[in-house]
Amino acid sequence: MKIRQLLIRRIQCFLIIFFVIMTFNMTFIPNEAFASDIIIAIYQNDSASDIENKIKKALISSTKPSTVTVLGSKTDVNATLHIFIPRSKSLIWQATYVSPNKLGNHLIELDGDYGNFHIQKGGIITSNGDNTIHAEFVNIFLNGGSVKANGDNCTAIESYVGDLTMQSGLIKATGTGCCAIKRTLNVLTISGGKIEVTGTGCNAIYTEEGSIVNISGATIQATGTSACAIRSYDYWFINNISGGNIIASGEGACSLIINTGAFAITGGKISAVGNKSSAIAIMDNGVCAYLYGTCIGNKYVTGNKGMIVEVDSTKILSDRTGSSGIKTVAGSGSAKWDMNQDRPIINFALSDGSLKSIQWGDKDYRVKKVSVYPVLYLAKGKTTTLPIIIQPFETKNRKVSWKSSKPKIAKVNSKTGKIKGLKTGKAIVTVKTDDGKKTAKCTVHVVKKEKKLKAFKVSYPKNKKMKVGQTYRLKVQLIPKKATGVVPSYYSHQVPDVTIDATGIIHAHKKCSADFGIHVGKQQKYIIIDVE
Fold this sequence. Notes:
- The chain is mainly β.
- The protein has two helices and 50 strands.
- The strands form eight sheets. Strands 2-4-6-8-7-5 form a six-stranded parallel barrel. Strands 34-41-40-37 form a four-stranded mixed β-sheet, with no helix packed on it.
- Strand 1, helix 2 and strand 2 form a beta-alpha-beta unit.
């Protein structure tokens, strides 16, 4: 009898503890094996602000490196969710998060210092009428779960400066002009799962401004009039397709469009079905090294410098170049970037044992300039790193070294650029590029006390307008003026039409509507300037 009463009391205690946790949404540690991890739950009656506060509190309170897992469900989202993920932190998303109506912005906005956002099995993120995920300076990993965008001109995942790795799961967009993945200045690695778009003029993957694409698996499918599975503007990197199934179906559809850039296809299957459809289309300065993959459908080339190179290892063929710009050679081959020539080089071992190389492009992408913010205030004993911008942005060799004029005052790691204030005083920190030996300097003031950034202001061009050929310097005012450990970091989404260096100087090269990001510490602002 006593044993039975003891058992009943233990069960009652367990139920009370469970009720308290579920009522007050407390975070808890699941077990000793994951002692550094925190799990939080979201609920139907939570507002976006409630969820933001839960995630922020968990990320700040957790130790480094650490992970925070989000569970639960909310299917009536009516406001954008803003999340900042610091460096060395990981946010694992296993919750259901759905907006039934258009918000007018993004469903989830991710920002950070190269933190990690994982979507795993059970994670469902769906928007209707908006972009689903907009990420900047955040690495995204998809290993199960799904991200969907429903609506015209909507994007499921839009990412700037941060890598995306997909092993399994689903990324899907539906609607005219929709896009599943849009990437800028990062690495896209796909080894499994499915990427799917449906609608007129849709793109499953759209990459530009230096994204590197590596596809070794997955199904990538675009369906609709003028639909495209992969569209590339990555004009200074070799992209690789070694596996997977890339499909486009519909009138005028195309599986792979290379406007400017280079692709090496060594495996997988590329196919196009439909009237006037094409498996591979090369525009402008694009080049494709077509090696061992299976291609079903038409291939065509337009533009003065466009080129497709086919390699047939089973037949003895002589080199031939037709008006279409398609070259065929026999033997095995590879595609790589030749650092001495600053352009893609496609190398072939021909059937007679001789070697052949085909170059693409004639632009000089050597380093012309490196820039760094000119002044930094740093508290004694504290560390930080300075953002730099190397131009032109097409430059492949981006190696730099760092040096301090007074290492006893401000010590700098020659490879990583991490600066530490050792004693009060002033030192000059210099960054030098490996290519071209270009330099830029920052005056580092080491002070006794730390002054945390409260806010910052940005000056804009008159009416937020510029003319082609004009330059303008964005001036950032820190509050307080000598806030320690932080400097402004700039980037332009319209490189190379409009560029900006690390001191905030904008160069307008071409008419467009240019949007810029300005980051100082964990704070950020965005502006749009019309170039006329």
